[in-house]
């Protein structure tokens, strides 16, 4: 774990669920590192939660176990719901100040760090994959936002893998599928490509008096997405605005759903049924997270 990341984690109360998570995972054997013998890494779509994810022990362990089921990546490229920027852009290659793009949480979450190794080699590779007519701009002082650093800090707490964030330049499914296709070759080089969102994200419609309740719109949308992906019906997924049940409540804005199309685009066969790595609900929202080969 990097010095500054470790120092920041040391400020977390020992009774905090994330401190307990770190103690648990620190006792595990080293993770095997990716080599070409493993073949391409999968591409992932995950629900990233919010800082409150650091208080959900079961979900943290699901994410970490998922990460441990894969060889340790050479690098990570992540697209988060929380950086919408057109044309596509990339974050700083060197560790930069994290983006604490949330409010109302405990002070400890605004002191967390995630200082990963320099990702300049990945930045050059990703830039080369873009068309000449759409060169990537690099925001040299922009760090990772919470849609990136929150799940990665749980999955890879050692902070020893280069991480680069790519902005989401559109919500058009076909354009995002095409962007994912451009990123597909990264998987052959041991790069883990991640779309980070939330399968349902209707925060304004959660019953905060009973956060364990699962709203019908959340369950219906999740079931529709799962069944549609299982059938490989990417065209139906792309038509989610017309076909998905409960959409105005499940996604009053769509930025937490659309990273899924980058993940599917990065698949060898976007119509192949993905593997569900995590399912279930948290605070009424679907945690469904998938990986594609």
TrEMBL record:
- InterPro entries referenced in this protein's UniProt entry, alphabetically: Extradiol_dOase_DODA, Xdiol_dOase_suB
Keyword tags: Dioxygenase, Metal-binding, Oxidoreductase, Zinc
What domain of life?
Bacteria
Pfam families recorded = LigB (PF02900)
Instruction: List, separated by semicolons, the cofactors it needs.
Output: Zn(2+)
SUPFAM superfamilies linked: LigB-like (SSF53213)
The record's GO molecular-function terms, alphabetically, read: ferrous iron binding; oxidoreductase activity, acting on single donors with incorporation of molecular oxygen, incorporation of two atoms of oxygen; zinc ion binding
> Where in the numbering of this chain does the Extradiol ring-cleavage dioxygenase class III enzyme subunit B domain appear?
57-269
Protein family (similarity comment): Belongs to the DODA-type extradiol aromatic ring-opening dioxygenase family.
Q: This protein is called what? A: Dioxygenase
Q: What is the lineage of its organism?
A: Bacteria, Bacillati, Actinomycetota, Actinomycetes, Propionibacteriales
